[in-house]
Amino acid sequence: MPTVFGAGHDNFDKTLYDTVVDDSRGYVSGGAYIGRAMPAAADQLHEIELKDPQTYYAKGLKRRFLEQRRQMHLAPGLAALEELNDKHPISLPSGSNKAYAEWGRLLKTTAPLAVQVRSMEQATVRRLLELTDRLYLLRGKDIDTVTSTWIWSLLARLDDVGTMDNDEVCAIRDLGKKAVLVQLSFRDSAAAKQLDDLGARSSPEAFNPAEVSLEDEEDDATNGTPTTPSNTAIGIPAKRQNTLATLDMIITVVGDVFGQRDLLEFRQKWEATVGASKSTLS
Prior knowledge:
two-stranded antiparallel sheet
């Protein structure tokens, strides 16, 4: 048996180094062989994003939501729990008009604390989403930034859709459908009203929204929405931009994360605005 082993030599056409013909690895220039540069993945990705920025926005939104959901399912620490007080409740008793009225005010005026949302039971989260739906997802009405933050946080606090029963999934789907309806109302109010009338819920109500009195609705310091919305370069007031972004977020999350993918086709398509450097909703 020989004491030295050697690997076999590959047989390849060395003339490739003397010509550019059929050589995908490089070429000869000035007597030197130059390897071809690998495709720039970042440049290619940027080019694709320019072609369809809405698709990549939606993917980025989903990634941020999944991270937020992970955060909202962490157990709150003892030190954080000390932040909770009467101004930051963690429950909503079913059928209590007084509690519903208080929460109706908080959902508009007081931003949520992370520990507050983490401490909520699933039943409370679902009731708060339903209350938000009924009070603040209204045709032709803008959504405050504090309310938007609550919707984002409450959706993130929900458990995986695979753990929900049919009624719970239907409630999430109804939220997505309501967002589609409100979104439509900013483009075609008559069509939105007609759809709303056709889809009016006929199930018994756990409480009467008309009996919920929202007193002292003045925004406090936690509400970053300006009193007079400033117009942007594309002419859309800041509050309306927040509203459209919130509705788009609800449809995207309900559709892509909670399995109601048929709702995604109702998202408003972005189109370039003449004279603007960014895209806007059509």
